[in-house]
Amino acid sequence: MKDQIAESALRPVRATAHCAVAAFALVGAAWTARAVWQIRLAAAGQPSSGPPDQGDGRHRPLTALEDAYHFVSSLGDAATVLCAIVFLMWLGRVRDNALALSSQRLRYSWPWAYLGWIVPIANLWIPRALIADIHRTGAPERPLPSVVNWWWALWLVGLVSGVGLMYTDSTDEVIARAYSDLGLLLAADAALVGAAVAGALMVRALSAVQEDRMEEVSRHGATPTD
User: Is residue 135 part of a domain?
Assistant: First the structure.
């Protein structure tokens, strides 16, 4: 009976994983486009009239290139939000499957799958810990794929060097930074593109491990790990 309950609770993960991989690819392309436009801005140089944000609430008219960057930046923001939604859907699916595959309890309750990304300080380690906990619970005999650490390291680099600044600064302020400090922006972009690639590989690796475990349960009626 326990085996039947565990097997019936399992949910297919392949389609959700494919969507998450595609979303990571979209984000990687979006941040690459941002980097290309930042390079174009730096190459064109700041207009003689100064940065777009003139201070004291005054803004000069944007150049065509600056206006295009606003559009590219908005598309990148939309792609990032979409990726976050799809990734959390995948995370919820593999978390449910891990619980069904094992009698062990996860270290973090389900609210942390969402709160762990936004609570200051805690967001520096909880998301990776969630992934590791899900993998350990669902497939304790398998080592954690190294790509998880690569993904998290690159994400933290991007978080510290650029993402936080870009979420608090306006797009016009980012344009001004492209004119004066392109290196920092490109470093953040490179880290985030790398994190997107590593994230896609991580989703594929963890999904493959879980699918193998699910097939074992279906084929042999294996008892969930105690």
Answer: yes
Q: Please tell me the distance from the alpha carbon of residue 115 to that of residue 111, in angstroms, as a whole number.
A: 6
In angstroms, what is the C-alpha Rg of the chain?
21
* pLDDT by 10-residue block (mean), the chain, 226 residues: 53 92 96 95 91 82 93 93 94 89 78 84 88 86 90 87 58 89 89 94 93 78 48
User: Left if phi > 0, otherwise alpha if psi is -120 to 50, otherwise beta: which for 45?
Assistant: left
Angle 70-199-80 (CA atoms, 0-180°, nearest 5)?
Answer: 25
In a domain? residue 6? yes
Q: What token pair was written down for 221?
A: 């009626």
Q: Which domain holds residue 188?
A: 2-45+63-219
Q: How many residues does the chain have?
A: 226
